[in-house]
Amino acid sequence: MKKQYFVLAIMAALMLALTATAFAQEPVELRITWYDDGNEGAVLRDLLDRFEAENPDIRVVIDTVAYQVVLDQLPLQVEAGEAPDMARITDFARFRGQYLNLRPLVADADYWDASFPEAVLQALRTADDAEDALFGFPNQFTVSAPFINRTLFEQAGIDVPSDNSDAVSWAEWTAAAAAVAEATETQYAIAIDRSGHRLAGPLFSEGAVLFNEDGSITVDTPGFRSMAQLLLDWHTNGLTPPEVWVGSGGTYAAAADFFINGQLVMYMSGSWQVGRFTNDIGDAFDWDVVPNPTGPGGSTGMPGGTVMVAFNQTEHPEEVARVMDYLVQVDVMREFVERTLFIPGHLGLGELNYQTDLELAQAALIDFANEVPKLSDQAYQLQYGGQAFAINNPIRDRLTQAITGELTLDEAIERIQQDIDDALAAAASS
User: Do 173 and 122 share a domain, yes or no?
Assistant: First the structure.
């Protein structure tokens, strides 16, 4: 009998040991909140599958959501203490103070310092953070500039203005696009995404100066009024799809579908659309990127892009750091940008071989890269100064009210200024 009990005890001990071993081998699960402009989520998943094969103790789940969810719901999650381990974001300032400092956790922090623009790394830090804290990395650099449907210009027998001039104004482009739309019976001539960021480049080109030397912000300038009035005129004259600015329900909205479907002659957006246009347009028509229109403020678009960050609420900081360290390696990041057709945020990738046979896409990426040296100081200050959303959102929302007739342009500008002042005052007191 004693022998039987002894055998049972041994078996129970073995079962407990096996159970403990199974639990010990259960991989740590990390979650990334992510949104897609094109195929980048699929590429990331492919890269992470390889990481997991080499690191079986870690499993990474990508939670793909709409961009508006990242803007509206992710902040609520973070404030509630329910942040994901990592996320792809564009509003760097919104989450300052909530990031995980990766510097003591990654294998080679000096490599990170040398690989990414300091302005982007600094944009994630608060005044109380260590001056060398590493909270994330730019996995995509973007530049805003217009696309045109070149096939429509050819069908209309109208020259593309930038083919014959290095300096074409927004008013001249508007007239040319309207003439092409009329000649080809195309539904719309010109459009811009419903986004303060997207409108900022044209505002600066028209001569708007938001940032003063004393640190104050002034909305009401001749350049601002000029571009805002032009946007209103596009709607009044039926040159632009009203669904984008008026029918979007108050959120960010893009006019990409109108361009893809051949319903739009000229579309102000940015380099992140190249991958989508490559897939969705293909060779249905010839499309091009043209230089940002020129005005009193020069010819400037807006810098931008996305940053991959880690949140300090994670229960697995070491594992998060291993994932982040993997994603910033040269070979991994080169494959990511080559397959997604992005402008890289990494400074050391060297010559890129973008994975597309479409010459239009190759040319577009070169054209966007040529826009980078023209970006204005005001554009950089808006994007990386920590005030972007406090400025961009009131511009977007109040000008929409002017478009719908709820406000006059004078009233919209006055309220934009007040909204910005209130937002910055609230941020300063928090």
Answer: no
